[in-house]
Amino acid sequence: MGGNLGSGGGAAGGRRRILITGGLGQLGSEFVAALRDLHGVDHVLLTDLRDDVNRSLIQSGPFARLDARDERALDELVTGHRIDTIYHLAALLSAVAETAPQKAWDINMNGLLAVLEVARRRGCAVFTPSSIGAFGPNTPKDWTPQDTIQRPTSIYGVTKVAGELLCDYYYRKYGVDTRGVRYPGIISNKTPPGGGTTDYAVEIYHAAVATGRYVCFLAGDTYLDMMYMPDAIKAALDLMEADPERLRHRNAFNVSAMTFCPEDQAAIIRRYIPEFEISYAIDPVRQAIANSWPNNLEDYAARVEWGWEPAYDLDAMTRDMLRVLTARRGEVSREGAV
Ligand code: NAD
Ligand code: SER
């Protein structure tokens, strides 16, 4: 483990003492940095089932290896480090979950239950992301309302709906300060996505910069809601600091930033890399999941209840992704030349 959390501070309006589960994944690896900027390196305990990836992040501050389902180990970390807030990010994503549904239920549900039980005993606030995967084929596809039909057909979606309800239950029954958003597909450039249906929207930028071409596993006209990582982080931090009196939808706020299909994304990339080519080799499993999800969410409740407003649209995100990935590639080739 990388060390103990520093002393001082509390949750209310000041520096929190935070534990992140699944913190080495796509979201966690960037949440850690943002939360440490805000609350101090020593106030943010990074945990994950794995400790064999991202050595530099593991060594950058407090770290503990933790299976989120292990309630006793989680309890010891929470009491030992006097944690007041848990960001619960450990989960299996939609495509991986479909290859091992029972394991996905075990990790996604028993991990959450352990977190909620420890939070109940130790008085912690909890952030848990839900997903566009919590909707299904008979949900309205366009401007999907905040409160609507939720009959998902993927095991990932089943766990996300159950998780939303369980978090609501722990708030109502035990007063645990549970909060969460329904994230769309998240696009980022630090840690690769962990096996979701929206991963193509990240891979496409890497491929555009590396080779100028991409073979997409979803059909070109498949619309899905997406969001750039800085907005995803902002959503979590803003919701966790929001006035609880104003929150009616605690655990499942629709949040939206942009909607596009692979053809739209390729067209925007061609503004900056005119020779970019996209072709298609459809993966039937991920295509079926994508077809069952909304095209775009209506996020009025998040805007009204805690002031949600995204900063990035498709063009702004594309410019930033290409800038970062091109610069990184330049650094790598310069290092190779030395
Ligand atoms: P990821 O797959 O990139 O990372 C998940 C992390 O959890 C991994 O580092 C993995 O090692 C860890 N993990 C797996 N099982 C564990 C266990 N039993 N105990 C502890 N750690 C375990 O996922 P992500 O993209 O960072 O997603 C984080 C959360 O956000 C998930 O709840 C996911 O459903 C949600 N979400 C993500 C997206 C997205 O586009 N990335 C969109 C909507 C919602
Ligand atoms: N990006 C996630 C997935 O595809 C959405 O929750 O699984």
Write a structural description.
The structure is a single chain. The protein has 338 residues and is α/β, with parallel strands linked by helices. It has two domains: 11-185 and 228-254, NAD(P)-binding Rossmann-like Domain (Rossmann fold); 186-226 and 258-296 and 307-330, UDP-galactose 4-epimerase, domain 1, CATH 3.90.25. 44% of the residues lie in helices and 14% in strands. It has helices at 28-39, 55-58, 71-80, 94-99, 101-122, 155-174, 200-210, 229-241, 262-272, 284-292, 300-306, 314-337; strands spanning 18-21, 44-48, 63-65, 85-88, 125-127, 130-131, 178-179, 181-183, 185-187, 213-216, 224-228, 253-254, 258-260, 277-280. The strands form four sheets. It has a six-stranded parallel β-sheet. The protein is globular and about 55 Å long. The two termini are 35 Å apart. The structure holds nicotinamide-adenine-dinucleotide (NAD) and serine (SER). Residues 21-22, 24-28, 48-50, 66-69, 89-91, 93, 107, 111, 129, 131, 183, 185-186, 193-194, 196, 198 line the site of nicotinamide-adenine-dinucleotide.
Average pLDDT score: 95
CATH architecture of the largest domain: 3-Layer(aba) Sandwich
CATH fold description of the largest domain = Rossmann fold
Biggest sheet, spatial arrangement of strands: 3-2-1-4-5-7
